[in-house]
Amino acid sequence: xxxxxxxxxxxxxxxxxxxxxxxxxxxxxxxxxRQDHPDFDLEFLVVDGESQDGTRNILDQIAGADKRVRVIxxxxxxxxxxxxxxxxxxxxxxxxxxxxxxxxKRNYIAECFKALREHNAVGSSGRVVTQPLDTGLEARLVAxxxxxxxxxxxxxxxxxxxxxVDHVNYPVMIKQALLEAGGYDEEMTRNQDxxxxxxxxAKGYKLYCTWKTDCYYFTQGRLRDxxxxxxxxxxxxxxxxxxxxxxxxxxHFIPFLFVLGLLGCSLLAGIGAxxxxxHAWSFLFPFIAVLGLHLTVGSIVALDLARRNKSWAALWxxxxxxxxxxxxxxxxxxxxxxxxxxxxxxxxRPAKLKxxxxxxxxxxxxxxxxxxxxxxxxxxxxxxxxxxRRAPLHHEx
Length: 397
Fold this sequence. Notes:
The chain is α/β, with parallel strands linked by helices. The chain has a domain at 12-143 and 156-220 and 353-389: Alpha-Beta Complex (Spore Coat Polysaccharide Biosynthesis Protein SpsA, Chain A), CATH 3.90.550.10. 46% of the residues lie in helices and 14% in strands. Helix 5 (137-147) packs across helix 12 (317-337), helix 9 (223-243) packs parallel to helix 12 (317-337) and helix 11 (280-309) crosses helix 12 (317-337).
């Protein structure tokens, strides 16, 4: 039976796409169910892509404990189908397009909702703070690589400044605008959010990023998973360029140009060594110069991060940045060479959280650790424990 909503207050529908997220879904949903909502109401639509790891059982138990939560099955599994299912089922005039690898500060939805209205925007997000999956060396390196402008550019959702932006991640949006744009492109397994942002901007709508609130995004825990993530992003950038050129910027193809530069210099060195062996080193100089410039910039960044984080582990970053950019560029190169045939892709395995939920909460900075966020003892309760004890997942005011 559908719960009656109070009249006179807008409803915000939180759409959360999930697939095999048993290790992170409870922590993510806990942060959402405790959201402040002073001048609006909330409903939660968790769209599950037929998870095989027990995620659905956790979701069903949470939904049984909190009537605001509805679980929807996404038989086609992919993210754009999940978002469109959520849009069709959402009762609110505003929607949140959220991810399950993220923890949201208690005022996240409220501040994004406020910014959306104050700045006459169609969508607003908070600042995305990148966190390592665990305290290991690889996880910290991955987080540093993707969160620094040298790794991801200054216009990435992880590094962008406050103000009007081209793209918003984890936004509060006006639902009608998404429907006017035709919903999410279901052929876009990746970059569907970039595609949607461009369609909205083309209609004259504005997108805004506020720094009055944060969410905490957990990266991959292993460098090899990061390299595949980069390769796949590069691959899909070429597909996105063919489908909607306006959704892609020049910065998305800088790694591709870097790889082309390395390949061109290598070819030049090989031809030079074959034609003029006595001058082989002179032909090798362009390759050394391009590679050396990248490693030099990476070393400067690494030294700065090592100083600010008081960790010598950051000195491995020059090689990490190099691998990340080469993998990204090779992904685009592979798409171009194969005419973007997706047979070359394999699914990325879901990240495995090595830390417990309580340990993750304790590692987060500032107000995230306050008792209002995580009442004592609650962080160690499982979903089934809460159902048995009839303890609500959201904070009772």
